[in-house]
Amino acid sequence: MINAVLEHPLMRQQVIPMTVHTYEALGQMGLVEERTELIRGFVLPKMSKSPLHTIVTQRLIEWLRHHIKTGYSVRQEQPIACRDSEPEPDIAVVAGSSENFATAHPRTATLIVEVSISTLERDREKAAIYAEAGVAEYWLVNPEAGWVEQFSKPLSGTYSVCKRLEKADKLTCLSFPEITISLSALLA
Predict the structure, then answer these.
(1) Which of 54, 72, 109, 179 is deepest in the core (most CB within 10 A)?
(2) Does residue 9 form part of some domain?
């Protein structure tokens, strides 16, 4: 099994990472499976979505699309081209219209949301990727545990502020302060 092979330090050193450019080119040729994303130079399969993941993501998308002012696009599971990764966050709010990204994926976002049910470790790794890309705000939503971590102020490849909110709290978007979400309603 490939996972066992990668646990051996000598084998892991021989793995060749893939660049974002190569990943996109192979994808255009149909040589990369669609249900994948590039994380730190490695192609990883995307996890299937549980009903809980789907409903929480849908609630957030509807809320954000209703409240985000013009000049921004709310994207669902669309790529963000970063230095060594091309994740497909559950939700990304990016400056500009959809048409602005007809020839290239956005390289950053104002807000990214990952709903994490079975992917907590991977989504925590993505926090560093998003901070490196200058994403102003990142929400890691864990509906099963009933909390949201709100990361902000990216600095030198990490978020300098991380605030954990529990189900009884209200989440105010730092990037769009007019948006406040009741976590009890979101995570119900």
Answers:
(1) 109
(2) no
